[in-house]
């Protein structure tokens, strides 16, 4: 039986050149409201620190704001970097969000710091130790959400029994192994580290252990997408994305740059190679081009859901890209791969 594949948005709240955090939050709200109206499934926000032009540092606060400004779309983290936080605090925060916005909150968990090493130490002195304890801290977090924890000496009020869905996020085989062993859904960061994605998905499916949270494997791939009326227009818009990754490689911290007519002669051969590696899972073009490429990608990876991030400089162009993308996905029929997941 054919069905439409669910599609969601990962928003990094990147500040564009000439803008500021306040304007970026307003744009993020408008994007979330459009996604809500168009029928996108999830709107996730990512935790980053010490990045002058990324405004999602207080991720939980921003999740609450976006949930308050939307109606039905699921809002969550892509992700919360668990080694930065005590599991008890994360449970309290997301349990509170779930009570305020019932059946609409997702908790995606990552192991990386979402920043540089020095800042990771400023956030938490024992960050390295906690990153090694990631599996144990995931289990601890699950316990705090469980009603079984009612007899424990340390309890997470009002989180107990809120049943917030937990996703394991990653860009390597380690995350795939953890998600499979714990019977949790698995999202892969193909938008910046696609190299091991297919291998990780295969390992996850082959080694998945059913749990009370999930009976069958559930995968989501995060990719880049820029859709416009023509291939030429989309290619121009995508130069902001290319510049963002180029600046990342150069450790040149800049706001999201305006698009260029061409990136020719702006990168060395080595830089071009690394940017292409990081952005290999990018779908750029008109509706017909993106539809053809996405179908191939979905059939090849066998993902259950798609999540898309779109670093587009002009806000109107970005909103239009997501509108066109939803039209593309709504027109595609994918062979059904049934999964059972509490609260979606």
Provide the residue-averaged pLDDT: 94
Q: What is the strand tally?
A: 11
**Ranges with pLDDT <50 over ≥5 residues?**
338-343
Largest sheet, order of strands side by side? 2-3-4-5-6-7-8-10
The biggest sheet amounts to: 8 strands, parallel, barrel
Strand content: 15-25%
Distance between the termini: 20 Å
Number of helices: 13
Sequence of secondary-structure elements: EEHEHEHEHHHEHEHEHHHEHEHE
Q: What spatial form do the alpha-carbon principal axes imply?
A: globular
Overall structural class, as computed from helix and strand content, comes to alpha/beta
Return Rg in Å: 19 Å
Percent helix, as a range, is: 40-55%
Salient structural properties:
globular; 43% helix; disordered C terminus; 344 residues; alpha/beta; 13 helices; two-stranded antiparallel ribbon
Describe the protein's topology.
Blueprint: E1 2-3, E2 7-11, H1 21-38, E3 42-45, H2 59-68, E4 74-81, H3 87-100, E5 105-110, H4 117-123, H5 127-132, H6 134-145, E6 166-170, H7 173-182, E7 186-188, H8 197-207, E8 219-227, H9 231-237, H10 239-249, H11 269-278, E9 282-285, H12 287-301, E10 305-309, H13 315-331, E11 334-335
């Amino acid at each position: 039986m054919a069905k439409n594949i669910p599609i969601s948005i990962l928003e990094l709240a990147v500040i564009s050149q000439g803008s500021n955090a306040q304007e970026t939050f307003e744009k993020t709200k408008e994007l979330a409201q459009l996604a809500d109206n168009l029928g996108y499934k999830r709107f996730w926000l990512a935790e980053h620190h010490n990045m002058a032009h990324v405004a999602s540092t207080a991720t939980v606060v921003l999740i609450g704001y976006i949930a308050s400004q939307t109606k039905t779309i699921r809002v969550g983290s892509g992700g919360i970097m668990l080694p930065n936080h005590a599991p008890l605090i994360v449970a309290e925060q997301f349990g509170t969000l779930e009570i305020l916005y019932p059946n609409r909150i997702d908790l995606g968990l990552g192991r990386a710091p979402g920043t540089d090493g020095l800042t990771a130490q400023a956030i938490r002195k024992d960050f390295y130790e906690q990153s090694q304890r990631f599996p144990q801290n995931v289990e601890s977090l699950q316990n705090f959400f469980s009603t079984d924890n009612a007899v424990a000496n340390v309890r997470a009020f009002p989180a107990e029994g809120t049943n917030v869905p937990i996703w394991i996020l990653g860009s390597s085989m380690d995350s795939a192994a953890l998600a499979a062993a714990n019977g949790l859904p698995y999202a892969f960061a193909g938008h910046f580290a696609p190299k091991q994605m297919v291998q990780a998905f295969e390992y996850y499916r082959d080694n998945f252990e059913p749990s009370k949270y999930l009976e069958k494997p559930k995968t989501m791939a995060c990719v880049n997408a820029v859709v416009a009326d023509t291939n030429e227009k989309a290619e121009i818009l995508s130069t902001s994305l290319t510049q963002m990754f180029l600046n990342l490689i150069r450790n040149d911290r800049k706001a999201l740059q305006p698009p260029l007519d061409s990136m020719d002669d702006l990168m060395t051969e080595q830089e071009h190679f690394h940017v292409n590696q990081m952005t290999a899972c990018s779908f750029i073009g008109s509706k017909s081009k993106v539809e053809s490429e996405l179908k191939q990608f979905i059939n090849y990876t066998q993902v259950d859901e798609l999540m898309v991030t779109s670093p587009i400089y002009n806000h109107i162009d970005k909103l239009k890209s997501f509108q066109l993308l939803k039209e593309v996905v709504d027109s595609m029929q994918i062979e059904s791969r049934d999964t059972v997941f509490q609260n979606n």
